């Protein structure tokens, strides 16, 4: 009985052994069969398309605009020429082998040692950190395969590589590889790249490539954009020098040659004129790689049709007005004031237009994407929208507006005017700093930081301080990110990801790919609408009046940051705003500030640029109004204005002579019965540096002594018997550059305020507290240089750079980073000690940003 059981058990064991053996045999045969099937498939692909290996003609990828019309094509360089291996310097081949595939002459297309090493490194790192493709695999991928990153694609790559090794010699594979490899900037193959980077126009000139130039070419394939000597000189040189070191270690060059090559300078970028859409096309290429996984070289090799969000009416309007020097502040001694602008579809976040600079070139510096200090345009994101979203605050809430210290940080209002409290809508309208900082302190910095992150703005750890209320970011942010953040105010609190591509069609397979656009609910619909109303009021009556459009409503916020060289100048000027169709974000400033490059205009120029670009872009569209979303309640009604004046005083200024002394004669009219006195304010460039030259005087005239060769600007502020301020007057000017002519003529030349020649009367609407901008009134002074004086009549506030002088709080109490700083230096916006400023306090919180 026991013996029978043993036999039965033995049979069962044998049965399992046979099953395992059978399965193993089946698995081995399947693997072998699959291997040969893949080899066959790879061989078929090579056989059918073998001509592709030496074909240097590539079909351009088509770029379509938002209406489906062809916008442009992505072209490769024109001078493509197939170069045989005998014309390629031996050192160049050795360099590529050294860095890309050091066992190229030993393996059969797949380097198992390298694959094993890569897997081990990936395991240790916990993610994929190292590639293992051989030169043959790279050739297979570049010629025969699509961009899809799947297991089967990699398997096909291996199969094709093995077939290539069976069909061609190593020299033939290397020859085809060097003619097919993408080396950046539309250059395919070493011949085109040698010409583009080093001016080697003919194939026979390849022999003249230096060791450094050879290493430079070998450095690029790992990342054509990242390691381009034109795009990233520092990274490019670092990688080039690494390859030079590898060449020395492998005996390709001597130590002396290594040292000499590493001292060689990088190539100088060719200045080429880009087309009107170049910045947008560059962005499309980057987005295709980031969002769709299609590398730049695959786009340039053709076969794609990319449907984008670009609207040619918008882009053409932007380019046209960027070419008009009158739309910009005065040039510096050697460079122009530069700018960057982005326009998004207000509902979708699609990029309707983008301009990277006044002289943008392919893959050049893009001011629309680079980081700048946002100034007061950041206030809605850091303070007011988060406060409204809590439900505890509303447009009519009273905010503290008295001089005060926040643990040593003492912000100041641009106009030096304070009160016990002020309504939120008035604080936004006038771009006041004290109530903004006070409100941030109330809602909490950490709470604000969370909202800022959700709005899509990246921050530095050092940004955790009250200066973020005024845009005092350590690194700054870009016009694109600001425009994206403002989509929350046009979409019920939802931030729509800024994007340039709607879909990509692969013409070889017919497959269309659409990637969803990220949407984030940051604030409630009610908070978004109330913030919108505050921003609309800021344009209608506040600091952004230069952004007004004819027949189209506009909402938005200006912003400036103070120059590090002069408290009377600006480093950055901004406007971020929108109408029912588009959101626009624009920055202006010098690329590098020095004594010969100081910008004295404020955000009036940027607001004005927004207006003229949008007016032209929308000239063929029927005007629309903002619509309050369903379910959103009306905002709190604005209470009756408690200020003295509902209409600002009307100021005129003229240049005259008293005895032998030139003076500015100020006269104003004011029909408001409650007015009991006036402050007279004077400044040279920025209202934020205005000094009070007469306090609470009862008369309506004032005489000010002036110096020759200076442009003086004035405004007056009315007060009632209780000391409450009213709406400031318009800005009046005298230009004493014409003093000599005045003295010779012996007569008083003057130009009356509100004259018909004044181009900046802003449609003649003198609403109370209508904000003007420092550069806004300068735009209207077309005759300033040709007359003794000039007066503008902007809509209300005389503050081109409103928003206060407290941003430069990098020193002292650990509160800030200096809004006009450029990153790491927290004191970057301090005025140098050798530049005196009699109108400003030495307190670091008294210098800063505005409107």
UniProtKB/TrEMBL annotation:
<keyword id="KW-0573">Peptidoglycan synthesis</keyword>
<dbReference type="GO" id="GO:0030288">
    <property type="term" value="C:outer membrane-bounded periplasmic space"/>
</dbReference>
<feature type="domain" description="Penicillin-binding protein transpeptidase">
    <location>
        <begin position="340"/>
        <end position="611"/>
    </location>
</feature>
<keyword id="KW-0121">Carboxypeptidase</keyword>
<dbReference type="GO" id="GO:0008658">
    <property type="term" value="F:penicillin binding"/>
</dbReference>
<dbReference type="InterPro" id="IPR050396">
    <property type="entry name" value="Glycosyltr_51/Transpeptidase"/>
</dbReference>
<feature type="transmembrane region" description="Helical">
    <location>
        <begin position="16"/>
        <end position="41"/>
    </location>
</feature>
<dbReference type="InterPro" id="IPR001460">
    <property type="entry name" value="PCN-bd_Tpept"/>
</dbReference>
<comment type="similarity">
    <text>In the C-terminal section; belongs to the transpeptidase family.</text>
</comment>
<dbReference type="InterPro" id="IPR013783">
    <property type="entry name" value="Ig-like_fold"/>
</dbReference>
<feature type="compositionally biased region" description="Polar residues">
    <location>
        <begin position="755"/>
        <end position="777"/>
    </location>
</feature>
<keyword id="KW-0645">Protease</keyword>
<feature type="compositionally biased region" description="Polar residues">
    <location>
        <begin position="838"/>
        <end position="851"/>
    </location>
</feature>
<dbReference type="GO" id="GO:0008360">
    <property type="term" value="P:regulation of cell shape"/>
</dbReference>
<protein>
    <submittedName>
        <fullName>Penicillin-binding protein F</fullName>
    </submittedName>
</protein>
<dbReference type="InterPro" id="IPR036950">
    <property type="entry name" value="PBP_transglycosylase"/>
</dbReference>
<keyword id="KW-0808">Transferase</keyword>
<dbReference type="InterPro" id="IPR012338">
    <property type="entry name" value="Beta-lactam/transpept-like"/>
</dbReference>
<dbReference type="GO" id="GO:0008955">
    <property type="term" value="F:peptidoglycan glycosyltransferase activity"/>
</dbReference>
<feature type="compositionally biased region" description="Low complexity">
    <location>
        <begin position="783"/>
        <end position="793"/>
    </location>
</feature>
<feature type="region of interest" description="Disordered">
    <location>
        <begin position="747"/>
        <end position="851"/>
    </location>
</feature>
<comment type="similarity">
    <text>In the N-terminal section; belongs to the glycosyltransferase 51 family.</text>
</comment>
<feature type="domain" description="Glycosyl transferase family 51">
    <location>
        <begin position="68"/>
        <end position="247"/>
    </location>
</feature>
<keyword id="KW-1133">Transmembrane helix</keyword>
<dbReference type="GO" id="GO:0071555">
    <property type="term" value="P:cell wall organization"/>
</dbReference>
<keyword id="KW-0472">Membrane</keyword>
<keyword id="KW-0812">Transmembrane</keyword>
<keyword id="KW-1003">Cell membrane</keyword>
<dbReference type="GO" id="GO:0009002">
    <property type="term" value="F:serine-type D-Ala-D-Ala carboxypeptidase activity"/>
</dbReference>
<keyword id="KW-0378">Hydrolase</keyword>
<keyword id="KW-0133">Cell shape</keyword>
<keyword id="KW-0511">Multifunctional enzyme</keyword>
<dbReference type="GO" id="GO:0006508">
    <property type="term" value="P:proteolysis"/>
</dbReference>
<keyword id="KW-0961">Cell wall biogenesis/degradation</keyword>
<dbReference type="InterPro" id="IPR001264">
    <property type="entry name" value="Glyco_trans_51"/>
</dbReference>
<dbReference type="InterPro" id="IPR023346">
    <property type="entry name" value="Lysozyme-like_dom_sf"/>
</dbReference>
<keyword id="KW-0328">Glycosyltransferase</keyword>
<dbReference type="Pfam" id="PF00905">
    <property type="entry name" value="Transpeptidase"/>
</dbReference>
<dbReference type="GO" id="GO:0009252">
    <property type="term" value="P:peptidoglycan biosynthetic process"/>
</dbReference>
<feature type="compositionally biased region" description="Gly residues">
    <location>
        <begin position="811"/>
        <end position="821"/>
    </location>
</feature>
<dbReference type="Pfam" id="PF00912">
    <property type="entry name" value="Transgly"/>
</dbReference>
């Amino acid at each position: 009985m026991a013996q029978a059981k043993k036999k039965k058990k033995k049979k069962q064991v044998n049965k399992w052994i046979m099953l395992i053996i059978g399965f193993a045999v089946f698995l081995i045969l399947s693997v072998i069969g699959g291997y040969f099937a893949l080899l066959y498939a790879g061989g078929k692909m090579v056989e059918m398309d073998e001509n592709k290996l030496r074909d240097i003609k590539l079909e351009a990828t088509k770029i379509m605009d938002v209406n489906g019309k062809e916008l442009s094509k992505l072209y490769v360089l024109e001078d493509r020429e197939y170069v045989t291996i005998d014309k390629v310097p031996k050192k160049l081949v050795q360099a590529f082998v050294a860095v890309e595939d050091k066992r190229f002459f030993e393996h059969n297309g797949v380097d198992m040692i390298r694959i094993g090493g890569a897997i081990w490194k990936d395991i240790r790192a916990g993610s994929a950190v190292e590639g293992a493709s051989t030169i043959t695999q790279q050739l297979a991928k570049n010629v025969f395969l699509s961009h899809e990153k799947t297991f089967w694609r990699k398997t096909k790559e291996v199969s094709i590589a093995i077939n290539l090794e069976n069909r061609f010699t190593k020299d033939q594979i290397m020859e085809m590889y060097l003619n097919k490899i993408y080396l950046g900037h539309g250059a395919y193959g070493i011949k085109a790249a040698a010409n583009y980077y080093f001016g080697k126009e003919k194939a026979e000139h390849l022999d003249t490539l230096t060791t450094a130039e050879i290493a430079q070419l070998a450095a690029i394939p790992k990342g054509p954009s990242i390691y381009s000597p034109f795009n990233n000189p520092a990274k490019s040189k670092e990688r080039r020098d690494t390859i030079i070191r590898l060449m020395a270690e492998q005996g390709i060059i001597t130590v002396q040659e290594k040292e000499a090559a590493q001292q060689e300078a990088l190539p100088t970028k060719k200045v080429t004129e880009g087309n009107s859409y170049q910045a947008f096309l560059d962005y499309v290429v980057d987005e295709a790689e980031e969002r769709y996984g299609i590398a730049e070289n695959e786009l340039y090799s053709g076969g794609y049709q990319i449907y984008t969000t670009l609207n040619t009416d918008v882009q053409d309007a932007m380019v046209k007005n960027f070419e008009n020097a009158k739309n910009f502040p005065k040039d510096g001694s050697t460079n122009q004031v530069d700018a960057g602008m982005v326009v998004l579809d207000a509902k979708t976040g699609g990029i309707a237009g983008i301009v990277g600079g006044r002289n943008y070139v392919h893959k050049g510096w893009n001011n629309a994407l680079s980081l700048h200090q946002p100034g007061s345009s950041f206030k809605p994101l850091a303070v007011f929208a988060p406060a409204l979203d809590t439900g505890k605050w509303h447009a009519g809430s009273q905010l503290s507006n008295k001089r005060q210290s926040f643990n040593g940080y003492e912000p100041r209002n641009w106009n030096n005017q304070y009160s016990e409290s002020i309504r939120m809508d008035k604080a936004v309208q006038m771009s006041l700093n004290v109530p903004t900082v006070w409100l941030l302190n109330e809602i909490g910095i950490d709470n604000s930081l969370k909202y800022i992150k959700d709005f899509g703005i990246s921050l530095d750890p050092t940004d955790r301080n009250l200066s973020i209320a005024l845009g005092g970011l350590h690194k700054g942010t870009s016009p694109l990110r600001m425009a994206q953040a403002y989509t929350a105010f046009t979409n019920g609190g939802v931030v729509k990801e800024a994007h340039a591509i709607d879909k990509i069609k692969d013409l070889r397979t017919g497959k269309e790919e659409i990637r969803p656009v990220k949407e984030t609910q940051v604030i409630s619909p009610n908070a978004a609408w109330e913030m919108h109303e505050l921003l609309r009021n800021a344009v209608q009556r506040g600091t952004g009046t230069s952004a007004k459009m004819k027949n189209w409503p506009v909402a938005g916020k200006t912003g400036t940051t103070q120059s590090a060289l002069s408290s009377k100048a600006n480093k950055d000027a901004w406007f971020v705003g929108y109408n029912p169709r588009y959101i626009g974000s624009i920055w202006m400033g010098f690329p590098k500030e020095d004594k010969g490059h100081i910008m004295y205009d404020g955000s009036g120029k940027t607001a004005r640029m927004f207006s003229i670009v949008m007016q032209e872009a929308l000239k063929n569209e029927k005007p629309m109004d903002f619509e309050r979303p369903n379910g959103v309640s009306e905002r709190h009604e604005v209470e009756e204005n408690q200020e003295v004046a509902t209409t600002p005083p009307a100021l005129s200024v003229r240049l005259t002579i008293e005895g032998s002394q030139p003076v500015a004669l100020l006269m104003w009219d004011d029909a408001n019965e409650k007015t009991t006195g006036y402050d007279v304010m004077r400044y040279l460039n920025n209202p934020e540096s205005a000094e009070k030259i007469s306090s609470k005087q009862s008369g309506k005239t004032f005489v000010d002594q002036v110096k020759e060769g200076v442009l003086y600007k004035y405004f007056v502020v009315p007060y009632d018997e209780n000391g409450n301020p009213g709406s400031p007057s318009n800005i009046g000017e005298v230009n004493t550059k014409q003093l000599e002519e005045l003295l010779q003529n012996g007569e008083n030349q003057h130009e009356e305020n509100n004259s018909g020649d004044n181009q900046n009367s802003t449609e003649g609407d003198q609403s109370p507290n209508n904000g003007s901008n420092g550069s806004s009134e300068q735009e209207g002074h077309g005759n300033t240089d040709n007359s003794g004086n000039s007066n503008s009549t902007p809509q209300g506030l005389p503050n081109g750079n409103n928003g206060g002088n407290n941003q430069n709080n990098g020193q002292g109490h650990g509160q800030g980073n200096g809004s006009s700083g450029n990153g790491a230096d927290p004191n970057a916006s301090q005025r140098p000690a050798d530049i005196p400023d009699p109108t400003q306090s030495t307190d670091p919180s008294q210098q800063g940003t505005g409107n």
